[in-house]
Write a structure and sequence with these properties.
Structural class: alpha/beta
Distance between the termini: 19 Å
Order of helices and strands: HEHEHEHEHHE
Largest sheet: 5 strands, parallel
Radius of gyration: 17 Å
Strand content: 15-25%
Strand order of the largest sheet: 3-2-1-4-5
Number of strands: 5
Number of helices: 6
Shape: globular
Helix content: 40-55%
Length: 166
């Protein structure tokens, strides 16, 4: 990387001259961890960046409880909710550990909702300089069928998006 491109990277975003809010999507996957490590090694500026480690739980699969496909047993629904809350607490602790171990300035944000649109809303809300996310690298057909958070973010973001692919 030339010094000219490094200079451009150091000045990304609307909040030049103050801390840059950097949204880093963290879903617990190896792809997200790879994106975080790549960001730390290649992009992070300790004196400029405020990292927002974001985990967004998509509960749309839980909405099938009570449908024709799933039992409406309240105990199953209650158990599913408790499990999801437990996973969110575990993820919050894991991400807080990342901040402590790396010594970076930042915060952890745990939310529920559609990951793609929620990341876009957070980037707007926090006036983010850019968004960092990982991708599995699905092919076009599989991405069309399954959807892709990184693809959605790339096409809907008002700020630069760094997509890490292993």
């Amino acid at each position: 990387m030339s010094s000219e491109s490094e200079c451009v990277m150091a000045n990304i975003g609307p909040n030049i001259g103050e801390r840059r809010n950097v949204i880093i999507a963290m879903d617990g996957s190896d792809y997200a961890e790879g994106a975080f490590k790549w960001y730390m090694e290649h992009v992070h500026r300790a004196d400029e960046d405020h990292a927002l480690l974001v985990n967004i739980a998509d509960h749309s699969h839980s909405l099938t409880h009570g449908s024709a496909w799933m039992s409406a047993d309240p105990k199953l629904v209650e158990h599913a909710i408790r499990e999801e809350e437990k996973k969110a607490r575990e993820m919050e602790k894991k991400l807080e550990t990342y901040l402590v171990e790396t010594g970076i300035e930042g915060q952890v944000i745990i939310m529920k909702g559609d990951p793609g649109s929620t990341l876009i809303k957070l980037a707007d809300e926090y006036n983010a300089a850019y968004i960092v996310t990982g991708t599995r690298g699905h092919g076009k057909i599989r991405r069309t069928i399954l959807g892709s958070v990184s693809d959605y973010v790339m096409h809907h973001s008002h700020v630069p998006v760094l997509i890490y692919r292993q």
